[in-house]
Amino acid sequence: MIIRLGIGIATFNRRDVALATVSRVMAHTLHPYTLMIADDGSRDGTAEALRAQHLTVVGGPNRGVAWNKNRILFYLMELARCDVVILLEDDTFPARDGWERDWIVAAARHGHVNLAAGPGLAAVVGGAGTGEQPFLTPAVVSHCSAFGREATRFAGYFDTRFSGCGYENIEYAQRLLRYGYGGVPPGHDQSPQACHYALPGGVTVTTPPSHLTEAGVTRNRAIAHMLADDDEPRACWRDRVGMLQFRAEMAAAFPRIRQQIAAEPPAPAAAAAVPAAPDPDPGGTAAEPTRRAKRARSGAA
């Protein structure tokens, strides 16, 4: 069976950088793939320049890295039905032909894998750096990462309580790890720390001007600390208003959603209260999907 590959590029106000990354993806990717770009409200003509090249662009108002990367994961996983998604930040691009091979293998086997670069590479404690045996490192580097469908189905998506950029990738990687994807827990035979799977290469990371701000990093650090033990799966939105915004963004790029929205009757001005249905499981014997997933991953009865 051929794995269905999706490649997504997250961008904001870097038109020329994003265009260059797209061209390198097209030049160096050998496996069949679906490409889309998530634009987080750029004001420099990024989305227009990409659409002029007949590329799929999903975008909307500026909502931060977590929301923008969710645009990629949801579109490619749920709408394009990809099995593996490689997520590139716009400053990171393929450096050789067939760069995607190890990323596909690692994500299909382990559910999640990050880039071993900078602090991630320096902290490696084990592994061979291949798709079959990725490096193990306690550090998380965000420039390139890959996800398997099963992992997102159980652990959900990036937490959109993070705004701007910073720490959203760390919280997500740690949550995936607690679900059994993308690494090994604390106390394994190579390190007392939890370690994440990472790959060393195939891509080049550049350093255009950053969108990080000290205030944003401080705020997101506090959110990450608050969510450190929160295992609840995350949707791509926090409430109904967010869902409607997210759905409208998907509909702009995916015709079937536009057709469904057009066919829906208008919402009533006020809905009558509906009595609650009797609880079919008053004793709580039906296991939650989250608990069931954790037991399945751990081998517990």
Architecture overview:
- The protein is of the alpha/beta class and about 300 residues long.
- The chain has a single domain (about 5-255), classed as Spore Coat Polysaccharide Biosynthesis Protein SpsA, Chain A.
- It is about 35% helix and about 15% strand.
- Helix 1 links the parallel strand 1 and strand 2 (about 35-40).
- The protein is globular and about 55 Å long.
- The two termini are about 30 Å apart.
- About 45% of the residues are buried.
User: Which CATH top level class fits?
Assistant: Alpha Beta
Instruction: Tell me the series of helices and strands, N- to C-terminal.
Output: EHEHEHEEHEHEEHHEEEHHHH
In angstroms, what separates the terminal alpha carbons? Answer: 31 Å
The fold-level CATH name is: Spore Coat Polysaccharide Biosynthesis Protein SpsA, Chain A
Count of individual domains: 1
- Helix % is 25-40%
Q: Indicate the mean pLDDT.
A: 87
Please, what is the CATH homologous superfamily? Answer: Spore Coat Polysaccharide Biosynthesis Protein SpsA, Chain A
Radius of gyration: 20 Å
* Beta-strand residue fraction: 15-25%
The backbone outline, from C-alpha atoms, is globular
